[in-house]
Design brief:
7-stranded parallel sheet, alpha/beta
Length: 324
């Protein structure tokens, strides 16, 4: 019996399907590449039961769904699915899944990496140490402490809690704002203090890390009003989604001295246009959305996606279905 098929976007190329994930897919399914499908779908469309959506590709459109009569599932290899038209999927009776949990540690690790790199001014001192015209060291240049400072976490979900566990190891004082307060046993484990109102927490923080999911309520949750409340030396870290931070307001805050530094793993859009003024700011560090970009994590994410496709193929409940 021939294998069922999954539709994938182009191979590798930086943002396509990476070669190090192919064995996980091909163990169970035949891959139909989008480019081949676009040229001639007549021989494969009926056999495709899922779309593997990696880095937002392939784009799930009405015209694509109309050409896949037996499609059961769009399996997003990632947590966020705001790029998927959920109403469209529902109208075609197609299910949606994502890959939560398995990337929490890697994302929290990167959050702490950005926090420390920003606090210790790592990029600037690296550039100085490696510059061709550096002939003597600058012993009087100093940066910010990390240990025993105050971290405010915006969104104490899975990733936020993982960040707090790591920050506790640096003896940081942990404050957090969340839609709901965590159980007291969770708070005691990380010595965290809850603030129902974000604006009450911000003036107390040396570092502010955004880890919330992107929703209409959290869009631009960090804006001009919030930056004005922060310490002028405070450092903002964003590992959630770019749209949770008002980037125009952030630029003004950085240039105007309302906050000291920003470290972003996410922007809106991604990547930023090459002439975007944030890219010219002296007090910012931007990484290209690499929170989950470790080999082990990415393979776990793909395995979870495949487990969802296998369940869909067998008519079983999906391990990580997104309810539409």
């Amino acid at each position: 019996m021939s294998k069922a098929s999954v539709l994938c976007s182009y191979l590798d190329g930086g943002s396509g399907m990476p070669t190090y994930l192919l064995d996980i897919i091909q163990k169970h399914f035949h891959i139909v590449w989008l480019e081949d499908f676009e040229k001639d779908s007549s021989n494969c469309s009926n056999n495709i039961l899922a779309i593997l959506n990696v880095h937002g590709q392939p784009k799930v459109t009405q015209s694509l769904l109309e050409r896949l009569p037996n499609l059961k599932l769009v399996a997003v290899v990632g947590v966020g699915y705001n790029h998927i038209d959920t109403k469209l999927l529902r109208s075609f009776n197609v299910k949606l899944s994502n890959t939560p949990f398995v990337l929490d540690d890697a994302t929290a690790d990167l959050g702490m990496t950005l926090l420390m790199a920003a606090g210790r001014n790592l990029c600037a001192v690296k550039d100085f140490a490696m510059a061709p015209d550096t002939t003597e060291l600058q012993f009087n240049e100093v940066s910010c402490d990390v240990s025993s400072t105050t971290l405010g976490i915006v969104g104490m979900g899975r990733v936020g809690y993982k960040v707090a566990q790591r920050a506790k190891g640096f003896e940081m004082k942990i404050l957090y704002h969340n839609r709901n307060q965590r159980p007291s046993i969770d708070e005691k484990a990380i010595n965290a203090t809850y603030y129902k109102t974000l604006n009450e927490m911000l003036p107390l923080c040396d570092y502010v890390m955004v880890t919330v999911c992107l929703t209409p309520e959290t869009t631009n949750i960090m804006g001009a009003g919030q930056f004005k409340l922060m310490k002028s030396t405070a450092i903002l870290v964003n590992i959630s989604r770019g749209a949770t931070v008002d980037q125009d307001a952030l630029l003004k805050a950085l240039n105007g001295g309302d906050i000291g530094f920003a470290a972003l793993d996410v922007t809106s859009p991604e990547p930023l246009p090459r002439d975007h003024p944030l890219l010219k700011a002296r007090n910012i560090l931007i990484t290209p959305h690499v929170g989950s970009a470790t080999l082990t994590t990415r393979r776990k994410m793909m395995q979870m996606a495949i487990n969802n496709v296998l369940a869909a193929a067998e008519g079983k409940p999906l391990p990580s279905e997104v309810k539409l």
